[in-house]
Design a protein that fits this description.
Helix 3 (about 145) links the parallel strand 4 (about 115-120) and strand 5. This protein has 18 helices and 15 strands. It is globular. The strands form four sheets. A nine-stranded mixed beta sheet has the order 1-2-3-5-4-6-7-10-11, with helices on both faces. A two-stranded antiparallel sheet has the order 8-9. The chain has a two-stranded antiparallel ribbon with strand order 12-13. The protein is an alpha/beta fold. Among the domains are: about 35-210, no CATH class; about 245-435, no CATH class. The model is unreliable at about 1-25 (pLDDT under 50).
Protein backbone atom coordinates (compact mmCIF):
# COMPACT_ATOMS: atom_id res chain seq x y z
CA UNK A 1 0.00 0.00 0.00
CA UNK A 2 1.39 3.44 -0.88
CA UNK A 3 2.13 5.95 1.87
CA UNK A 4 -0.55 8.27 0.50
CA UNK A 5 -3.21 5.53 0.52
CA UNK A 6 -2.19 4.46 4.01
CA UNK A 7 -2.38 8.02 5.33
CA UNK A 8 -5.81 8.50 3.80
CA UNK A 9 -7.08 5.22 5.20
CA UNK A 10 -5.67 5.94 8.66
CA UNK A 11 -7.31 9.37 8.70
CA UNK A 12 -10.67 7.93 7.67
CA UNK A 13 -10.51 5.25 10.36
CA UNK A 14 -9.59 7.79 13.02
CA UNK A 15 -12.39 10.17 12.10
CA UNK A 16 -14.94 7.38 11.93
CA UNK A 17 -13.88 5.99 15.29
CA UNK A 18 -13.91 9.40 16.93
CA UNK A 19 -17.23 10.33 15.42
CA UNK A 20 -19.04 7.30 16.87
CA UNK A 21 -17.74 7.62 20.42
CA UNK A 22 -20.21 8.41 23.21
CA UNK A 23 -19.51 11.49 25.35
CA UNK A 24 -16.66 10.86 27.83
CA UNK A 25 -17.78 10.00 31.37
CA UNK A 26 -17.29 12.38 34.28
CA UNK A 27 -13.67 12.38 35.50
CA UNK A 28 -12.98 9.83 38.24
CA UNK A 29 -12.09 10.96 41.73
CA UNK A 30 -8.38 11.44 42.51
CA UNK A 31 -6.23 8.54 43.63
CA UNK A 32 -5.58 8.32 47.38
CA UNK A 33 -2.49 10.10 48.66
CA UNK A 34 0.43 7.68 48.46
CA UNK A 35 2.00 6.53 51.70
CA UNK A 36 5.10 4.39 51.94
CA UNK A 37 6.47 1.68 54.18
CA UNK A 38 9.89 0.73 55.53
CA UNK A 39 11.73 -2.21 53.94
CA UNK A 40 10.90 -5.61 55.39
CA UNK A 41 14.37 -6.97 54.63
CA UNK A 42 17.93 -5.83 54.07
CA UNK A 43 19.23 -4.92 50.65
CA UNK A 44 21.62 -7.89 50.71
CA UNK A 45 18.74 -10.30 51.30
CA UNK A 46 16.63 -9.04 48.43
CA UNK A 47 18.35 -11.02 45.66
CA UNK A 48 17.66 -14.34 47.38
CA UNK A 49 14.09 -13.45 48.34
CA UNK A 50 12.87 -12.02 45.03
CA UNK A 51 11.54 -14.42 42.42
CA UNK A 52 9.92 -13.46 39.12
CA UNK A 53 9.64 -15.49 35.93
CA UNK A 54 12.45 -14.74 33.50
CA UNK A 55 14.32 -12.41 35.86
CA UNK A 56 17.85 -12.80 37.18
CA UNK A 57 19.14 -10.33 39.77
CA UNK A 58 22.82 -9.72 39.04
CA UNK A 59 23.75 -7.39 41.90
CA UNK A 60 22.44 -5.55 44.94
CA UNK A 61 24.15 -2.74 46.81
CA UNK A 62 23.21 -0.57 49.75
CA UNK A 63 24.08 3.10 49.30
CA UNK A 64 24.31 4.97 52.59
CA UNK A 65 22.69 8.35 53.20
CA UNK A 66 25.14 11.10 52.22
CA UNK A 67 27.34 8.76 50.18
CA UNK A 68 26.17 9.85 46.72
CA UNK A 69 26.12 13.39 45.33
CA UNK A 70 24.89 14.32 41.84
CA UNK A 71 25.85 17.40 39.78
CA UNK A 72 23.48 20.33 40.19
CA UNK A 73 21.57 18.82 43.13
CA UNK A 74 22.42 20.37 46.49
CA UNK A 75 21.28 17.48 48.68
CA UNK A 76 22.98 14.11 48.87
CA UNK A 77 20.99 11.10 47.75
CA UNK A 78 19.16 9.31 50.57
CA UNK A 79 19.93 5.80 51.75
CA UNK A 80 18.72 3.29 49.19
CA UNK A 81 19.12 -0.19 47.76
CA UNK A 82 20.39 -0.58 44.19
CA UNK A 83 19.15 -3.68 42.37
CA UNK A 84 20.52 -4.65 38.96
CA UNK A 85 19.24 -7.46 36.81
CA UNK A 86 18.21 -8.85 33.46
CA UNK A 87 14.92 -10.16 32.14
CA UNK A 88 14.06 -12.53 29.28
CA UNK A 89 17.62 -13.54 28.41
CA UNK A 90 17.87 -15.17 24.99
CA UNK A 91 20.03 -15.83 21.96
CA UNK A 92 18.70 -14.34 18.76
CA UNK A 93 18.05 -16.82 15.92
CA UNK A 94 18.63 -13.95 13.49
CA UNK A 95 22.03 -12.54 14.47
CA UNK A 96 23.11 -15.10 17.13
CA UNK A 97 23.72 -12.34 19.66
CA UNK A 98 22.70 -12.47 23.30
CA UNK A 99 19.84 -10.21 24.29
CA UNK A 100 18.06 -9.35 27.55
CA UNK A 101 16.09 -6.49 29.03
CA UNK A 102 18.59 -4.96 31.42
CA UNK A 103 17.31 -2.92 34.36
CA UNK A 104 18.25 -1.08 37.52
CA UNK A 105 16.02 -0.18 40.46
CA UNK A 106 16.78 2.17 43.32
CA UNK A 107 14.65 1.58 46.39
CA UNK A 108 14.88 4.30 49.06
CA UNK A 109 14.77 3.32 52.72
CA UNK A 110 12.29 6.14 53.29
CA UNK A 111 9.86 5.32 50.51
CA UNK A 112 6.92 7.56 49.62
CA UNK A 113 4.72 4.72 48.33
CA UNK A 114 5.15 5.70 44.67
CA UNK A 115 6.72 3.96 41.65
CA UNK A 116 8.66 5.96 39.04
CA UNK A 117 9.50 4.39 35.67
CA UNK A 118 12.38 6.44 34.23
CA UNK A 119 11.97 6.00 30.47
CA UNK A 120 15.25 6.70 28.75
CA UNK A 121 15.96 8.35 25.41
CA UNK A 122 17.57 7.88 22.03
CA UNK A 123 17.88 4.30 20.87
CA UNK A 124 18.20 3.20 24.51
CA UNK A 125 20.87 0.49 24.83
CA UNK A 126 22.15 1.74 28.20
CA UNK A 127 20.88 1.15 31.72
CA UNK A 128 21.28 4.69 32.99
CA UNK A 129 21.29 5.14 36.79
CA UNK A 130 17.75 5.04 38.15
CA UNK A 131 17.76 8.42 39.85
CA UNK A 132 14.39 9.50 38.46
CA UNK A 133 15.08 12.41 36.08
CA UNK A 134 12.31 14.99 36.54
CA UNK A 135 13.12 16.50 33.10
CA UNK A 136 14.00 19.97 31.92
CA UNK A 137 17.42 21.55 32.13
CA UNK A 138 19.64 21.22 35.20
CA UNK A 139 17.01 19.65 37.47
CA UNK A 140 17.51 20.53 41.15
CA UNK A 141 15.93 17.31 42.42
CA UNK A 142 15.03 13.84 41.21
CA UNK A 143 12.60 11.02 41.87
CA UNK A 144 14.90 9.15 44.24
CA UNK A 145 15.41 12.24 46.39
CA UNK A 146 11.65 12.74 46.48
CA UNK A 147 11.21 9.20 47.82
CA UNK A 148 10.09 7.28 44.72
CA UNK A 149 11.14 3.71 43.97
CA UNK A 150 12.76 4.23 40.56
CA UNK A 151 13.29 1.87 37.61
CA UNK A 152 15.54 2.38 34.57
CA UNK A 153 16.20 0.00 31.67
CA UNK A 154 18.03 -0.46 28.37
CA UNK A 155 14.74 -1.36 26.59
CA UNK A 156 15.95 -4.83 25.66
CA UNK A 157 19.38 -4.44 24.11
CA UNK A 158 22.90 -3.29 24.92
CA UNK A 159 24.83 -0.79 22.81
CA UNK A 160 27.15 -2.78 20.57
CA UNK A 161 30.55 -1.11 20.33
CA UNK A 162 31.96 -3.80 18.03
CA UNK A 163 30.08 -2.68 14.92
CA UNK A 164 29.92 0.60 12.98
CA UNK A 165 26.13 0.36 13.28
CA UNK A 166 26.56 0.80 17.04
CA UNK A 167 23.38 1.72 18.85
CA UNK A 168 21.15 0.59 15.98
CA UNK A 169 22.57 -2.92 15.59
CA UNK A 170 19.66 -4.41 17.54
CA UNK A 171 17.33 -3.48 14.66
CA UNK A 172 18.38 -6.65 12.87
CA UNK A 173 16.49 -8.70 15.50
CA UNK A 174 12.66 -8.48 15.36
CA UNK A 175 12.16 -9.18 19.08
CA UNK A 176 14.67 -6.49 20.01
CA UNK A 177 12.68 -4.06 17.90
CA UNK A 178 9.50 -5.06 19.75
CA UNK A 179 11.21 -4.68 23.12
CA UNK A 180 12.40 -1.22 22.15
CA UNK A 181 9.04 -0.27 20.72
CA UNK A 182 6.77 -1.29 23.58
CA UNK A 183 7.49 -4.68 25.13
CA UNK A 184 10.29 -3.74 27.56
CA UNK A 185 8.05 -1.28 29.39
CA UNK A 186 5.15 -3.75 29.35
CA UNK A 187 7.33 -6.54 30.75
CA UNK A 188 9.28 -4.52 33.30
CA UNK A 189 6.39 -2.63 34.86
CA UNK A 190 4.69 -5.56 36.65
CA UNK A 191 8.11 -6.98 37.53
CA UNK A 192 9.13 -3.71 39.19
CA UNK A 193 5.90 -3.59 41.17
CA UNK A 194 6.53 -7.16 42.35
CA UNK A 195 10.06 -6.21 43.41
CA UNK A 196 8.63 -3.28 45.37
CA UNK A 197 6.14 -5.66 47.01
CA UNK A 198 8.97 -8.00 48.01
CA UNK A 199 11.18 -5.27 49.49
CA UNK A 200 8.56 -3.16 51.26
CA UNK A 201 5.80 -5.68 51.87
CA UNK A 202 3.29 -3.62 49.85
CA UNK A 203 2.72 -2.57 46.28
CA UNK A 204 3.00 1.06 45.17
CA UNK A 205 -0.09 3.15 45.84
CA UNK A 206 0.43 5.20 42.67
CA UNK A 207 2.63 4.64 39.62
CA UNK A 208 4.20 7.20 37.31
CA UNK A 209 6.15 7.04 34.05
CA UNK A 210 8.42 9.97 33.21
CA UNK A 211 10.49 10.41 30.06
CA UNK A 212 11.70 12.79 27.40
CA UNK A 213 12.32 12.37 23.66
CA UNK A 214 12.17 8.61 23.01
CA UNK A 215 11.31 8.34 26.71
CA UNK A 216 8.31 10.56 25.98
CA UNK A 217 7.37 8.16 23.20
CA UNK A 218 7.61 5.29 25.72
CA UNK A 219 5.16 7.18 27.92
CA UNK A 220 2.50 7.67 25.26
CA UNK A 221 2.89 4.10 24.03
CA UNK A 222 2.54 2.76 27.60
CA UNK A 223 -0.59 4.86 28.14
CA UNK A 224 -2.15 3.32 25.03
CA UNK A 225 -0.93 -0.29 25.38
CA UNK A 226 -0.93 -0.80 29.17
CA UNK A 227 -3.38 1.83 30.46
CA UNK A 228 -4.00 -0.05 33.71
CA UNK A 229 -0.39 0.20 34.89
CA UNK A 230 0.09 3.95 35.38
CA UNK A 231 -1.82 6.64 37.20
CA UNK A 232 0.20 9.55 35.86
CA UNK A 233 2.49 9.94 32.85
CA UNK A 234 4.80 12.88 32.22
CA UNK A 235 6.38 13.24 28.79
CA UNK A 236 8.64 15.96 27.48
CA UNK A 237 9.58 16.41 23.83
CA UNK A 238 7.37 13.41 23.02
CA UNK A 239 8.70 11.60 19.94
CA UNK A 240 5.45 9.73 19.43
CA UNK A 241 5.99 9.77 15.64
CA UNK A 242 9.63 8.80 16.02
CA UNK A 243 10.18 7.01 12.66
CA UNK A 244 8.50 9.83 10.71
CA UNK A 245 10.55 12.45 12.57
CA UNK A 246 13.69 10.58 11.49
CA UNK A 247 12.45 10.68 7.89
CA UNK A 248 11.99 14.44 8.26
CA UNK A 249 15.50 14.78 9.63
CA UNK A 250 17.25 13.08 6.70
CA UNK A 251 14.98 14.92 4.26
CA UNK A 252 15.99 18.17 5.97
CA UNK A 253 19.65 17.23 5.58
CA UNK A 254 19.04 16.91 1.84
CA UNK A 255 17.71 20.47 1.78
CA UNK A 256 20.65 21.86 3.75
CA UNK A 257 23.04 20.02 1.42
CA UNK A 258 21.82 22.23 -1.44
CA UNK A 259 23.50 25.28 0.12
CA UNK A 260 26.48 23.54 1.74
CA UNK A 261 30.12 23.49 0.73
CA UNK A 262 31.88 20.11 0.36
CA UNK A 263 34.03 18.72 3.15
CA UNK A 264 37.56 18.64 1.66
CA UNK A 265 38.35 15.33 3.38
CA UNK A 266 35.23 13.41 2.29
CA UNK A 267 33.85 15.42 -0.62
CA UNK A 268 30.42 15.08 0.98
CA UNK A 269 28.41 18.20 1.82
CA UNK A 270 29.45 19.83 5.09
CA UNK A 271 26.01 20.77 6.39
CA UNK A 272 27.45 23.11 9.02
CA UNK A 273 28.40 25.49 6.21
CA UNK A 274 24.78 25.85 5.06
CA UNK A 275 23.77 28.11 7.94
CA UNK A 276 26.68 29.20 10.15
CA UNK A 277 25.83 30.47 13.66
CA UNK A 278 25.75 34.09 12.49
CA UNK A 279 23.01 33.27 9.99
CA UNK A 280 20.92 31.36 12.52
CA UNK A 281 21.26 34.32 14.90
CA UNK A 282 20.06 36.57 12.08
CA UNK A 283 16.94 34.44 11.68
CA UNK A 284 16.38 34.45 15.44
CA UNK A 285 16.52 38.25 15.50
CA UNK A 286 14.06 38.45 12.62
CA UNK A 287 11.61 36.17 14.44
CA UNK A 288 11.89 38.25 17.60
CA UNK A 289 11.39 41.49 15.68
CA UNK A 290 8.07 40.21 14.34
CA UNK A 291 6.83 38.03 17.23
CA UNK A 292 8.46 38.94 20.54
CA UNK A 293 5.88 41.51 21.63
CA UNK A 294 2.81 39.46 20.67
CA UNK A 295 2.43 38.42 24.32
CA UNK A 296 2.52 42.04 25.51
CA UNK A 297 6.25 42.32 26.29
CA UNK A 298 9.42 42.42 24.19
CA UNK A 299 11.62 40.21 26.37
CA UNK A 300 13.45 37.87 24.00
CA UNK A 301 10.74 35.20 24.23
CA UNK A 302 8.15 34.14 21.65
CA UNK A 303 5.42 33.02 24.04
CA UNK A 304 2.57 33.27 21.51
CA UNK A 305 3.67 30.39 19.29
CA UNK A 306 0.61 30.19 17.08
CA UNK A 307 0.41 33.96 16.79
CA UNK A 308 3.98 33.98 15.51
CA UNK A 309 3.27 31.35 12.86
CA UNK A 310 0.61 33.68 11.47
CA UNK A 311 2.66 36.85 11.83
CA UNK A 312 6.09 35.74 10.58
CA UNK A 313 6.92 35.42 6.90
CA UNK A 314 10.41 34.33 5.97
CA UNK A 315 10.24 35.89 2.50
CA UNK A 316 9.37 39.29 3.98
CA UNK A 317 11.03 39.30 7.40
CA UNK A 318 14.49 37.82 6.79
CA UNK A 319 16.87 40.20 4.96
CA UNK A 320 18.00 38.93 1.56
CA UNK A 321 21.45 39.50 0.11
CA UNK A 322 21.57 41.48 -3.11
CA UNK A 323 24.89 39.96 -4.04
CA UNK A 324 27.39 37.74 -2.27
CA UNK A 325 26.57 36.11 1.08
CA UNK A 326 27.08 38.31 4.15
CA UNK A 327 26.91 36.04 7.21
CA UNK A 328 24.84 37.56 9.98
CA UNK A 329 23.58 40.37 7.74
CA UNK A 330 21.38 38.63 5.19
CA UNK A 331 20.60 35.25 3.66
CA UNK A 332 21.07 34.40 0.01
CA UNK A 333 17.89 33.65 -1.98
CA UNK A 334 18.92 29.97 -2.02
CA UNK A 335 19.33 29.91 1.77
CA UNK A 336 15.93 31.51 2.28
CA UNK A 337 14.29 28.99 -0.03
CA UNK A 338 15.91 26.06 1.81
CA UNK A 339 15.01 27.35 5.26
CA UNK A 340 11.41 28.04 4.28
CA UNK A 341 11.12 24.51 2.88
CA UNK A 342 12.59 22.91 6.02
CA UNK A 343 10.18 24.82 8.25
CA UNK A 344 7.27 23.86 6.02
CA UNK A 345 8.14 20.16 6.47
CA UNK A 346 8.46 17.16 4.16
CA UNK A 347 5.84 16.47 1.49
CA UNK A 348 6.28 13.74 -1.13
CA UNK A 349 5.71 14.13 -4.87
CA UNK A 350 2.06 13.08 -4.50
CA UNK A 351 1.45 15.93 -2.05
CA UNK A 352 1.23 13.68 1.02
CA UNK A 353 2.57 15.31 4.17
CA UNK A 354 5.06 13.01 5.87
CA UNK A 355 5.66 14.97 9.06
CA UNK A 356 4.83 18.35 10.56
CA UNK A 357 6.80 21.46 9.83
CA UNK A 358 8.65 23.48 12.48
CA UNK A 359 7.40 26.55 14.35
CA UNK A 360 9.34 29.75 13.86
CA UNK A 361 11.09 30.48 17.15
CA UNK A 362 14.16 32.38 18.34
CA UNK A 363 15.59 29.10 19.67
CA UNK A 364 16.79 28.37 16.13
CA UNK A 365 20.00 30.03 17.33
CA UNK A 366 20.47 27.34 19.98
CA UNK A 367 23.54 25.14 19.66
CA UNK A 368 21.44 22.01 19.98
CA UNK A 369 19.35 23.08 16.98
CA UNK A 370 22.37 23.17 14.71
CA UNK A 371 23.82 19.94 16.08
CA UNK A 372 20.67 17.95 15.40
CA UNK A 373 20.11 19.44 11.98
CA UNK A 374 23.67 19.37 10.65
CA UNK A 375 25.31 16.45 12.47
CA UNK A 376 22.88 14.00 14.09
CA UNK A 377 20.63 13.90 11.02
CA UNK A 378 23.34 12.30 8.90
CA UNK A 379 25.21 10.44 11.63
CA UNK A 380 24.69 7.96 14.45
CA UNK A 381 21.22 9.23 15.41
CA UNK A 382 18.60 9.73 12.73
CA UNK A 383 20.28 8.17 9.69
CA UNK A 384 21.46 5.03 11.46
CA UNK A 385 18.13 4.59 13.29
CA UNK A 386 16.20 4.98 10.06
CA UNK A 387 18.44 2.54 8.21
CA UNK A 388 18.45 -0.27 10.76
CA UNK A 389 15.57 0.15 13.21
CA UNK A 390 12.74 2.12 11.61
CA UNK A 391 12.57 0.63 8.11
CA UNK A 392 11.60 -2.86 6.96
CA UNK A 393 13.64 -4.61 5.86
CA UNK A 394 16.65 -2.98 7.52
CA UNK A 395 19.38 -1.63 5.29
CA UNK A 396 22.46 -3.62 4.38
CA UNK A 397 25.46 -3.17 6.71
CA UNK A 398 27.24 -1.89 3.60
CA UNK A 399 25.54 1.43 4.34
CA UNK A 400 28.29 2.10 6.86
CA UNK A 401 31.11 -0.35 6.10
CA UNK A 402 30.91 -0.88 2.36
CA UNK A 403 33.24 0.49 -0.24
CA UNK A 404 33.38 4.12 0.74
CA UNK A 405 29.74 4.29 1.78
CA UNK A 406 28.79 6.36 4.81
CA UNK A 407 25.66 7.31 6.70
CA UNK A 408 25.55 10.67 4.99
CA UNK A 409 25.30 8.88 1.64
CA UNK A 410 22.34 6.91 2.98
CA UNK A 411 20.69 10.08 4.31
CA UNK A 412 21.19 12.09 1.14
CA UNK A 413 19.96 9.19 -1.00
CA UNK A 414 16.80 8.52 1.02
CA UNK A 415 13.71 9.11 -1.12
CA UNK A 416 10.36 10.17 0.29
CA UNK A 417 8.63 8.49 -2.62
CA UNK A 418 10.64 5.26 -2.62
CA UNK A 419 11.71 4.80 1.01
CA UNK A 420 9.42 6.64 3.44
CA UNK A 421 6.75 3.95 3.21
CA UNK A 422 9.22 1.44 4.67
CA UNK A 423 8.47 2.72 8.18
CA UNK A 424 4.93 1.32 7.69
CA UNK A 425 6.14 -1.90 6.06
CA UNK A 426 6.31 -5.44 7.45
CA UNK A 427 7.45 -8.78 6.08
CA UNK A 428 7.72 -12.46 7.05
CA UNK A 429 10.53 -11.75 9.56
CA UNK A 430 9.53 -8.29 10.79
CA UNK A 431 5.82 -8.96 11.19
CA UNK A 432 5.11 -5.57 12.81
CA UNK A 433 6.08 -2.31 11.18
CA UNK A 434 8.10 0.28 13.05
CA UNK A 435 5.11 2.61 13.16
CA UNK A 436 2.93 -0.12 14.63
CA UNK A 437 5.48 -0.97 17.34
CA UNK A 438 6.75 2.50 18.19
CA UNK A 439 3.68 4.74 18.18
CA UNK A 440 0.56 4.83 20.39
CA UNK A 441 -2.14 2.38 19.33
CA UNK A 442 -4.79 4.90 20.42
CA UNK A 443 -3.76 8.54 20.35
CA UNK A 444 -6.94 9.38 22.27
CA UNK A 445 -5.71 7.17 25.17
CA UNK A 446 -9.35 6.41 25.98
CA UNK A 447 -8.75 3.43 28.29
CA UNK A 448 -6.06 5.35 30.19
CA UNK A 449 -8.30 8.36 30.76
CA UNK A 450 -11.37 6.23 31.53
CA UNK A 451 -9.64 4.83 34.61
CA UNK A 452 -8.57 8.30 35.73
CA UNK A 453 -5.05 8.50 34.30
CA UNK A 454 -3.47 11.95 34.02
CA UNK A 455 -1.06 13.01 31.30
CA UNK A 456 1.25 16.02 31.31
CA UNK A 457 3.15 16.96 28.16
CA UNK A 458 5.85 19.61 27.73
CA UNK A 459 7.57 20.55 24.50
CA UNK A 460 10.17 23.15 23.56
CA UNK A 461 9.00 25.28 20.66
CA UNK A 462 12.52 25.30 19.20
CA UNK A 463 12.94 21.52 19.28
CA UNK A 464 14.80 20.68 16.04
CA UNK A 465 13.90 16.96 16.05
CA UNK A 466 10.33 16.40 17.21
CA UNK A 467 8.29 19.34 16.03
CA UNK A 468 6.18 21.12 18.63
CA UNK A 469 3.63 21.53 15.82
CA UNK A 470 3.39 17.74 15.63
CA UNK A 471 2.64 17.60 19.35
CA UNK A 472 0.05 20.34 18.89
CA UNK A 473 -1.50 18.21 16.13
CA UNK A 474 -1.61 15.29 18.59
CA UNK A 475 -3.30 17.56 21.14
CA UNK A 476 -5.88 18.68 18.59
CA UNK A 477 -6.71 15.02 17.93
CA UNK A 478 -6.96 14.39 21.65
CA UNK A 479 -9.40 17.27 22.01
CA UNK A 480 -11.39 15.89 19.08
CA UNK A 481 -11.65 12.55 20.90
CA UNK A 482 -12.53 13.98 24.34
CA UNK A 483 -14.19 17.30 23.57
CA UNK A 484 -14.56 19.78 26.41
CA UNK A 485 -13.35 17.13 28.89
CA UNK A 486 -9.88 16.87 27.30
CA UNK A 487 -8.18 19.08 29.87
CA UNK A 488 -9.59 16.93 32.67
CA UNK A 489 -7.08 14.24 31.77
CA UNK A 490 -4.27 15.84 29.76
CA UNK A 491 -2.49 19.19 29.51
CA UNK A 492 0.20 20.41 27.13
CA UNK A 493 2.77 23.03 28.13
CA UNK A 494 4.95 24.65 25.47
CA UNK A 495 8.38 25.98 26.50
CA UNK A 496 9.39 28.96 24.32
CA UNK A 497 12.94 28.88 22.99
CA UNK A 498 13.79 25.45 24.38
CA UNK A 499 15.64 23.05 22.11
CA UNK A 500 15.51 19.24 22.34
CA UNK A 501 14.42 18.47 25.93
CA UNK A 502 16.46 21.35 27.38
CA UNK A 503 18.78 24.21 26.48
CA UNK A 504 18.40 27.06 24.04
CA UNK A 505 17.52 30.65 25.05
CA UNK A 506 14.82 29.46 27.42
CA UNK A 507 13.56 29.14 30.97
CA UNK A 508 14.03 25.38 30.87
CA UNK A 509 14.25 24.41 34.56
CA UNK A 510 10.95 23.22 36.03
CA UNK A 511 9.41 20.51 38.21
CA UNK A 512 6.56 18.85 36.36
CA UNK A 513 6.69 15.73 38.55
CA UNK A 514 5.30 17.51 41.61
CA UNK A 515 2.60 19.04 39.41
CA UNK A 516 1.61 15.61 38.13
CA UNK A 517 1.52 14.05 41.62
CA UNK A 518 -0.68 16.86 42.88
CA UNK A 519 -3.04 16.32 39.96
CA UNK A 520 -3.23 12.54 40.34
CA UNK A 521 -3.45 12.38 44.13
CA UNK A 522 -5.00 15.70 45.15
CA UNK A 523 -7.10 16.49 42.11
CA UNK A 524 -5.22 19.78 41.61
CA UNK A 525 -4.93 20.20 37.84
CA UNK A 526 -1.98 22.45 36.94
CA UNK A 527 -3.19 25.89 35.88
CA UNK A 528 0.37 27.00 35.12
CA UNK A 529 3.98 25.92 35.74
CA UNK A 530 6.78 28.25 36.85
CA UNK A 531 9.97 27.71 34.85
CA UNK A 532 13.35 29.28 35.61
CA UNK A 533 16.38 30.28 33.58
CA UNK A 534 19.79 28.87 34.44
CA UNK A 535 21.99 31.91 34.08
CA UNK A 536 25.48 32.53 35.51
CA UNK A 537 25.74 31.34 39.10
CA UNK A 538 23.19 28.56 38.67
CA UNK A 539 24.10 25.07 39.82
CA UNK A 540 24.13 23.89 36.18
CA UNK A 541 24.32 27.07 34.06
CA UNK A 542 22.85 27.22 30.58
CA UNK A 543 25.36 29.21 28.49
CA UNK A 544 22.59 30.18 26.06
CA UNK A 545 20.64 32.29 28.55
CA UNK A 546 20.91 35.78 26.99
CA UNK A 547 23.04 38.30 28.89
CA UNK A 548 20.09 40.71 28.85
CA UNK A 549 18.05 38.33 31.04
CA UNK A 550 18.20 38.06 34.79
CA UNK A 551 20.26 34.98 35.68
CA UNK A 552 17.27 33.52 37.52
CA UNK A 553 14.46 34.84 35.32
CA UNK A 554 11.16 33.00 35.79
CA UNK A 555 8.30 32.61 33.36
CA UNK A 556 4.88 31.01 33.39
CA UNK A 557 4.27 27.98 31.23
CA UNK A 558 0.59 27.82 30.35
CA UNK A 559 -1.65 24.95 29.29
CA UNK A 560 -2.06 25.11 25.52
CA UNK A 561 -3.71 26.99 23.85
CA UNK A 562 -3.26 29.62 26.57
CA UNK A 563 -0.28 31.98 26.40
CA UNK A 564 1.69 33.64 29.19
CA UNK A 565 0.75 37.29 28.65
CA UNK A 566 2.44 40.19 30.42
CA UNK A 567 0.19 42.14 32.79
CA UNK A 568 2.40 44.48 34.86
CA UNK A 569 5.36 44.46 37.20
CA UNK A 570 8.88 43.02 37.20
CA UNK A 571 9.65 41.86 33.67
CA UNK A 572 11.94 39.12 35.01
CA UNK A 573 9.28 37.50 37.20
CA UNK A 574 6.61 34.94 36.34
CA UNK A 575 4.30 36.75 38.78
CA UNK A 576 3.94 39.54 36.22
CA UNK A 577 2.25 37.25 33.70
CA UNK A 578 -1.14 35.59 33.38
CA UNK A 579 -2.27 32.64 31.29
CA UNK A 580 -4.85 33.68 28.69
CA UNK A 581 -5.79 32.88 25.11
Amino acid sequence: MSLAKFAALASAVLLTACGTLPPPPAPPTPRPLASGAPPVMTCDALAARFAYAGVRVTATERVADGQLALPGIARYMPEHCVVKGVMNERTSPVDNKRYAIGFEMRLPTYWNGRFFYQANGGLDGFVTPAYGDILGGGPASNGLLKGFAVLSSDAGHAFDRTTPIGGASFGIDPQARRDYGYNAVAQLTPMAKSLIQTFYGKRPVTSYLVGTSNGGRHGLVAASRTPEEYDGILVSTPGYNLPLAAVAQVWGAQQFAKVSRPNPATQRPDLTTSFPPADLNLVARAVLARCDALDGLADGVVADVQGCQKAFRADRDIPVCAGAAQPGQCLTPAQKAVLAKVFEGPVDSAGTRIYSGLPWDAGIAGRDWAQWKFSHSVGPRDAVALAFVFTTPPASPAVVNGQGNTLIDYALGFSLDRDAGKVWASDALFTDSAMKMMTPTDTGLRAFTKRGGKLLLAHGTADPVFSALDTIAWWDGYVYAHGSKASDSARLFLVPGMNHSRGGPATDQMDLVDALVNWVERGQAPQSIVAQARGPGSAVPNPEVPASWSANRTRLLCPYPQVARYVAGDVESAASFRCAE
